[in-house]
Every structure is written in structure tokens, then in C-alpha cells.
Here is the input.
Amino acid sequence: MGHHEPTTHSPTGPLAGLRVIDLSTVLAGPLSAQVLGDYGADVIKVEHPQRGDSFRTHGFSKDGHGLWWKIVSRNKRCIGLYLGDPDAAAVLRTLAASADVVVENFRPGTLEKWGLGWDVLHELNPRLVLVRITGFGQTGPYRHRAGFGTLAEAMSGFAAVTGQPDGPPTLPAMGLADSIAGITAVSATMMALWHRDRPGGSGLGQQIDVSLLEPIMCAVGPGPLVADQLGVVTERTGNRSNSNAPRNTYLTSDGRWLAISTSATTIAERVMTLVGMPEVTREPWFSSAKGRAEHGDLLDEAVATWIGERTAAEVTAAFETADAAVAPVYDALDLLADPHVQATDMIPTVDDPDLGPIRMPGLLFGMSATPGQVRWTGRALGADTDEVLGDAGVDGAEIARLRQAGVVS
Here is the structure.
């Protein structure tokens, strides 16, 4: 298993030399900046000098240190700067003048109120890309509403199709909409940078408008199109699929849950042959995923009975021999112990100055020539204020004055 030593040396990776200012809070914006930092960008995390980002205390903590913060704020230099103060806003404009990307997730109009709107930043630095992440986007009648992932998960159709048929709509137990929006923002940012910097490119930055609602709508699937064209509203099916079968979670004789997918007809044939029902594969409806879904009760009963008579190890071995698709339903401890996860260092060990060696989810993807790196974990509030502001040309006396005034930490 890999052991990653934190380092503050000049970053490597495909985005080395790119400077990102992260003004955002909680998850979607900070996650997008985290990914950019993972692949070499110099990310400057700006927080309220006294309160800090509320994400520091979000979720579980150990010895007063938020654990999720250690992940989402890794590879970032942390400064405290109260943007509502004119002097601090002037410092931010100084930082933005040499930046490539600014990420923010305030309600529309907030940056403008502080004298940091797009017109100001674009005139100051025409190459700057401003990534604006909100609940409902920069336009439309909902633009000023408070935007949280829970609302997007409800409005997108996700909750309506999640859960058992006889149960309530079900929200995810994690920041799903925020995470999808954050990863989407990374893609949008790289498109804007390519447009700016490609041969023959514009040389100019632009604004990016990311809502929490639209990216998760993409993940939910074709429900709006189905409703538009057929007048059909997709309903909850539990762990089954309304477009394929057998697809479910199944309990083994030793009390373990396994998940099966048969999206490909060839896999469905192998599964049904394995569980002792080869004759069903010759039915005319079997070759159609929709046809199998319409006969889900029949297929599910056969698969559930066969699996229920065997241990998880026996089922997994049989499925692997048959080249069929099965996976265990893991909790977090199972995931940490999985041999494939360990062998591929998906959850590396990183040294943290507060907690010692800790394991956290690693990089989103590998790159053969320019891999990313977890250089350090989430840092203390204001840990890098003097360094960042000094590098930007703010002299020590001015930093001391701002600190005395309470607008930097």
C-alpha cells in the first residue's frame, strides 16, 4: 500500500503553474478546487478569518479536527480574508490579478456587492476564468434562493426514483449533488482554459455558471424525455431496474449482500444459466433488456433462491468462473480492507500533522506521464496567510495592520 509523504515543494502534475483561488464553502466549489489541486494547481483557499469555512466542522471529527476537511482542503494553501471589508477586497483583487481561476459559490450578486464582480475581475485580469457555483444558477426566478444539495437531489427527480416502491422518496446519505456539480465544474474549467490557451485560442477567460441542479439531472437519466414523449413518470423500483433484469441486491446464506448487474444480454444469459434456469434465455423477450425487466419477478426469484442457498465466497467464485458480474455490498471498513483497493492504492495513507498517518480517498484518475499527488492534507485556518500575501506583494506592515483590524487571520 502506498504511503504518501506530504510536501510543500513546487507541485508537479498536468496543472503545475496554474493558480486557483478558492472562495467557495462547504462542498461543490471546494471539491472542484481540490481536484485541480490534486493535479498540480496552486490552490489558495480563502476563508473568513475568524469563522473559517463551515466545512471545517462538517461531519465527523477527531481531536477537534474535521475529517472531511482534511480531504477536501488537501493541496490548498489556506488564508483568512474577510471579503466584506474594502481593504480585504483590494487584497483579493491583487491576488486575482495573477490567478488563472477563481471559484466561488456565493448567492448571485454577492461578489458584485463586494466590488469583486465579473466586470471588475475581467478588466483587472482578462485571462481569468470565474467559476460560479450556485444552487440554481446565475439566472432564472430561483437564482436568489438558498441552494443546497438536498434541494437539488429532491428537485432533480433523484429522490422520486430512489427507495422501495411502497416507501417514501429517498435522499442520498452523502453530498451527491454537490459532488457531481464539483466534478462538473472541473470539466467546465478545463474547457474554458483550453478555449483561452489552445493554439489560435481567444487568450481570454470567461464566466462559468454551474448549478447544483443540472449536473445531477444528467445523472438521474432520461426521465424528463420519457415524460415528454410518453407521458410516463418513472417510479421507484427499489434496487431493481425498470429497464433491465435481473438487477438487485441478494442475501447469501452467510448473511452477506451481493449486487448483480446484467445490463448486457450475454451477462444475463450467463447468470440465468448459472442459477439453473437456462431455458428462460431462449424466450423471445429475454434478448431485450426491457423484456427482462417486465419479467423481473421470475428472474429475481430464481437468482435470489440460488444465492440464498450459498455463501458469499461460493457465489462470488461461481460468478467469476462464469464471467458474470457480481460485487459485494461494502461498508467503509470493507472498502478499506479490499485487496484490489489496497493493491491499486485507491485509498492511500497520507501523513497529517495533526492526526498522523491517515487514509483518505485518492485521486479521481491516473495519468501515465503527469500523475497527480496528495501533497498535504487540509491545513489550519490562516496557515499560509503571510506567505501568500507576501508573495503577492503585500508588505509585512500592511499584513499586520489588516490582522489588527481583524480582516485577515
